[in-house]
């Protein structure tokens, strides 16, 4: 497969740069600086050093022995991104981008956040590099994720509540974009997933490739061969593309992305873009999204704020189109049941986002032979979701 995206950010028919004219020059400047950084061994060395000593890489590839035995089928391994600093994969990207912002001479960082995990990762790297930090967050999410709001504020970030529309992630992205159009001179916008205009989906993916590269090396060490199946949850798609991409050249490795099925595939009650979605443009990119017949973006729902978004990253749209990656969904109830199962068989509380991937792993493992190997990306830990899980499960 040839390296994608092309120079204007297209993955086949998907992706691109659908932004206001004022952002075209800064996005081009960002693309150029990123290309230079990528080719600069000093940049890579600084990034690798911080990933190791500040963030705690490499993360373990853990054999979930009791879960495997209980399900009686394929061996299940978990890639432990939940053990990373700040509790999820998000810091891989936030760290990479803050280093790019520094190279660009920017002094101020803005970000959007849903569950607050990306906001926390961004506030963390801003504190580490002495950057001013403003995080946009829907007012509803601020209530649901009060702990993460406090974490950001304690690290010196300003959290700006967004009262527009559904008051969740989509509106927070709109506000961040509005800020950026006015402040791009001194400000870099750290997008939290493999979404938005080129070069963001590519750059965010690249900063998460470390997940799949490590997993590939680790499974070869432990099992002497590549896995049969990779599973990851898909919000914007950053943890999934980070795990999947380094295996795309291995035709025998099957890959499944798991979206948020909410209350089931009923309009406005889920966030599974590949089920009942359509092709369109949202927030800078052409991809699969949830919209009604008039083209209005639909309301979405998921028990996990981090998967509750109307569009999927354009590279996933491409991989689905090519038939290279399969996409399915888990409902809120299935995710909550998986949360409990992993907690009680392995002593790991996964994030509710992650629980969607675990749910699919649990569903499929028993029907696969014991000689098969599954790697599930454990994208984050569930501390932030304890109140929600307790409400449903206790
Ligand atoms: C944000 C988040 C996700 C969803 O984002 P992707 O970009 O799809 O990875 C998944 N898991 C956790 C733990 C998250 O914090």
Q: Helices, strands, pairings?
A:
Blueprint: E1 10-11, E2 14-15, H1 21-38, H2 41-53, E3 61-63, H3 65-71, E4 75-80, H4 90-103, E5 108-113, H5 117-129, E6 132-138, H6 139-144, H7 146-154, E7 158-162, H8 169-183, E8 187-189, H9 200-223, E9 229-233, H10 238-244, E10 254-262, E11 278-282, E12 285-289, H11 314-321, E13 326-331, H12 332-346, H13 352-365, E14 373-378, H14 386-393
Parallel strand pairs: 4-14, 5-6, 5-8, 6-7, 9-10, 9-14, 10-13
Antiparallel strand pairs: 1-2, 3-4, 11-12
Précis, in short:
The model has no long low-confidence stretch (mean pLDDT 96). The protein is α/β, with parallel strands linked by helices and 394 residues long.
Tell me about this structure.
The structure is a single chain. With 394 residues, the protein is of the alpha/beta class. The protein has 2 domains: 143 residues, Rossmann fold (3-Layer(aba) Sandwich); 217 residues, Rossmann fold. Helices cover 43% and strands 18% of the residues. Strands 3-4-14-9-10-13 form a 6-stranded mixed β-sheet, with helices on both faces. β5, α5 and β6 form a beta-alpha-beta unit. The radius of gyration is 19 Å and the shape is globular. The structure holds pyridoxal-5'-phosphate (PLP). The site of pyridoxal-5'-phosphate has 20 residues, from α10 and α13. Keywords: Amino-acid biosynthesis, Aromatic amino acid biosynthesis, Lyase, Pyridoxal phosphate, Tryptophan biosynthesis.
């Amino acid at each position: 497969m040839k390296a994608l995206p092309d120079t204007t950010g297209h993955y086949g028919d998907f992706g691109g740069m659908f932004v206001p004219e004022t952002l075209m020059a800064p996005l081009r400047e960002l693309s150029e600086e990123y290309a230079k950084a990528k080719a600069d061994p000093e940049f890579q060395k600084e990034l690798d050093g911080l990933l190791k000593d500040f963030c705690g890489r490499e993360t373990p590839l853990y054999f979930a022995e009791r879960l495997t035995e209980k399900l009686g089928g394929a061996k299940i391994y978990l890639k432990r991104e939940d053990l990373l600093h700040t509790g999820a994969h998000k810091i891989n990207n936030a760290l990479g981008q803050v280093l790019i912002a520094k190279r660009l001479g920017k002094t101020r960082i803005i970000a959007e956040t849903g569950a607050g995990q990306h906001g926390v990762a961004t506030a963390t790297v801003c504190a580490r590099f002495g950057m001013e930090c403003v995080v946009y967050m829907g007012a509803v999410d601020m209530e649901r994720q009060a702990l993460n709001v406090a974490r950001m504020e304690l690290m010196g970030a300003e959290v700006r509540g967004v009262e527009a529309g559904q008051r969740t992630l989509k509106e927070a992205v709109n506000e961040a974009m509005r800020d950026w159009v006015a402040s791009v001179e001194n400000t870099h916008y750290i997008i939290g997933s493999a979404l938005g205009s080129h070069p963001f989906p590519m750059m965010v993916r690249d900063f998460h490739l470390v997940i799949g590269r490590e997993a590939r090396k680790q499974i070869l060490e432990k099992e002497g061969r590549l896995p049969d199946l990779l599973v990851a949850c898909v919000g914007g798609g950053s943890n999934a593309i980070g795990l999947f991409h380094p295996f795309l050249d291995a035709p025998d490795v099957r890959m499944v992305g798991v979206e948020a099925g909410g209350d089931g595939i009923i309009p406005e009650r889920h966030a599974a873009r590949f089920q009942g979605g359509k092709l369109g443009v949202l927030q800078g990119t052409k991809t699969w999204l949830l919209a009604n017949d008039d083209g209005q973006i639909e309301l979405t729902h998921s028990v996990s704020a981090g998967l509750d978004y109307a569009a999927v990253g354009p590279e996933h749209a491409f991989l689905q189109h090519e038939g290279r990656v399969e996409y399915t969904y888990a409902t809120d109830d299935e995710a909550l049941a998986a949360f409990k199962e992993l907690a009680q068989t392995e002593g790991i509380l996964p994030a509710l986002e992650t629980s969607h991937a675990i749910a699919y792993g649990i569903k499929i493992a028993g029907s696969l032979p014991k000689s098969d190997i599954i790697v599930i990306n454990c994208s984050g830990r569930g501390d932030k979701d304890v109140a929600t899980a307790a409400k449903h499960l206790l």
